[in-house]
Amino acid sequence: MDNVQLQQKARQMRIDIVRMISEAGSGHPGGSLSCTDILVALYFGGVLKHDPINPQWNERDRFVLAKGHAAPAQYAALAEAGYFPREELMTLRKLGTRLQGHPDSNLLPGIEVSTGSLGQGLSIACGMACGFELDGTGQTVFTVLGDGECQEGQVWEAAMFAAHRKLDNLVAIVDRNCLQIDGNTADVCDPGNVAQKFAAFGWDVSEVDGHDIAALIEVLQQAKESHGGAPHAIIAKTVKGKGVSFMEDQAGWHGKAPNAEQTQLALAELDDRKEASCG
């Protein structure tokens, strides 16, 4: 899949994210839109080994969305990949839906683990990666964390464990958009230089533009293929609300659904960009 096709995937996923959150009347657009390109690189860039026809394929890689409130982004990716019909996206957060506000592994194919309690995802990913190391299998475990989530102490317990166990089949991607529900991460509880922190814990660290899909694929593939005895942290510099101009870099769009007028504006903007990319 070439870069133009990947960009089209990203735009379609952003359209789906806006539409489903608007239809639900609740959700988290900001952090879903910021990590969209990361998920495109994983699911459609040849990085994540997976099979929508056989979601329980034993040889698949594993993906854990630690920042579970960004579930709309993963749902959009799964629908785009063919795990379930796109029409089901419009059932987000509705009574009886498989698309809960946070991912539920008991309901939806392609969800490896239920997430949402911030700080726990990296620990779960560590356990998976450790299991694969013990079994001697070749799967890689990927996880996406929020940068506000990195204020949780459990993240750093997991980071210490992963380095101690030399889990070089573990790749943690930090969605570094510098905003959380209460404002700028530096103002709420400054995480400092996240790259340096992971490096200090013994991780192999890379930094990348989190909206450059080609660069993301390259750094993710390098991490997957590197077996130097250290886990991998990729600090992806992103913009919260990416793709919708009035949502970009605005903490207020962390957990708020757009109204009808805002939805129309957002979709028109995304549709214009989609058409421009095809011209």
CATH top level class name? Alpha Beta
| Superfamily (CATH H level) name | Thiamin diphosphate (ThDP)-binding fold, Pyr/PP domains
Task: Report the order of strands and helices.
Answer: HHHEHHEHEEEHHEHEH
User: How many domains make up the 3D coordinates?
Assistant: 1
Instruction: Specify Rg, calculated over alpha carbons.
Output: 17 Å
Derived from helix and strand composition plus strand pairing, the structural class reads: alpha/beta
Low-confidence stretches: none
The span between the termini is 18 Å
Give the strand order of the largest sheet, numbering strands 1, 2, ... along the chain. Answer: 1-2-3-7-6
Helices, by number, come to: 10
Largest sheet: 5 strands, parallel
* Mass-distribution shape: globular
CATH architecture: 3-Layer(aba) Sandwich
What is the helix content? 40-55%
Provide tags for this entry.
Rossmann fold; two-stranded antiparallel sheet; 279 residues; 7 strands; alpha/beta; 5-stranded parallel sheet; 10 helices
Structure description:
With 279 residues, this protein is of the alpha/beta class. The chain is built from ten helices and seven strands. It has helices at 3-24, 29-34, 36-44, 71-81, 121-135, 153-164, 185-189, 194-200, 213-225, 260-278, and strands spanning 62-65, 141-146, 170-176, 179-180, 183-184, 204-209, 232-237. It starts with a helix and ends with a helix. The mean pLDDT is 96.
